[in-house]
Amino acid sequence: MRAITYSQFGSADVLELTDQPDPHPGADVVVVRVRAASVNPVDWMVRQGYLEGVLDTQFPVVPGWDVAGVVEQVGLDTPEFRVGDEVYGYVRKDWVHGGTFAELVAAPVRTLARKPASLSFEEAAAVPLAGLTAYQSILRSGVREGQTVLVHAAAGGVGSFAVQIARSLGARVIGTASEPNHEYLRGLGAEPVTYGDGLVERVRALAPDGVDVALDYAGGDAVAASAQVLTPGGTVTSITDATAREHGGHYVWVRPSSADLEALGALIDAGKVSVEVGQVFDLADAADAHRASETRHGRGKIVVRV
Ligand SMILES: NC(=O)c1ccc[n+]([C@@H]2O[C@H](COP(=O)([O-])OP(=O)(O)OC[C@H]3O[C@@H](n4cnc5c(N)ncnc54)[C@H](OP(=O)(O)O)[C@@H]3O)[C@@H](O)[C@H]2O)c1
């Protein structure tokens, strides 16, 4: 099969299109013919070696954890799926090696669910990692109807899903973004505020009684700023900064989950959550897809078409 690979840590220049052996299904693993994958910031952080010590790496690495495609081969005991099923998934394994920027990927069944019927493969590939992160961090925070929720980096991959999921639960949502993304946030149902100096005062002006839940998808000083605008008993949950725990909050690392992917898919097919695809690249141009994500600004998920 053709795949994007790298054999040393480094800049996007280490990514190359190579021939690799086809993966085999394991006992609880199916082989998926990849139709699309998407880029998440963790892909280039792993490529730069930032997660050494968290996840073991086996070179050559095929990057990418998000996939949408069709089941091509089933494993010895995989009653969940049949050949021909259209699936999507967050195919993070326990080590870094065989990712989704390839024509085929071996995917443990716990990482997959049926693709939402209303989405194209490219849209579906944009969902799993970011959507699951939003879903799981909102569950962990206990967001419920009538609460005020502050979402940092609300226009990003994770934030745009979180805004919509929190709205579907009946929460009021305030979201941080740069001005060009404010109209986009209004369309998702959030009240936009500009991040940077003065953020705490701007949030207080919108929510004088404080926010019940703050969701940090931005990093930097978002946890510290959140702590200043929480209601008594309010919580901050971060996916970038474990100091959230020092404020009685949570730090979340997204886990593969078929059940959570099915729940997300139901929200999508019910029209409660929409998917914004930004740029789409061909597999051979995966390095440019990584570079686009590394700017850390913009709107919509970056998708790689296989
Ligand atoms: N722990 C986990 O399991 C987990 C899972 C997923 C992601 N993450 C991490 O969470 C972060 C967000 O991921 P993502 O996929 O949402 O990234 P992303 O889609 O690349 O985020 C880009 C967005 O971030 C916004 N942004 C940049 N700097 C900001 C700031 N200081 N304040 C507010 N918004 C800002 C940009 O808005 P503008 O264009 O308007 O500036 C842009 O819309 C990354 O650091 C990622 O590594 C962690």
From TrEMBL:
Signal peptide: none annotated. Coiled coil: none annotated. Residues 10-304 form the Enoyl reductase (ER) domain. InterPro entries: ADH-like_N, ER, GroES-like_sf, NAD(P)-bd_dom_sf, Quin_OxRdtase/zeta-crystal_CS, YIM1/Zinc_Alcohol_DH_Fams. CDD domains: MDR_like_2. Gene3D superfamilies: Medium-chain alcohol dehydrogenases, catalytic domain, NAD(P)-binding Rossmann-like Domain. Pfam families: ADH_N, ADH_zinc_N_2. Keywords: Oxidoreductase. PANTHER family: ALCOHOL DEHYDROGENASE RELATED (PTHR11695), RETICULON-4-INTERACTING PROTEIN 1, MITOCHONDRIAL (PTHR11695:SF294). This is NADP-dependent oxidoreductase.
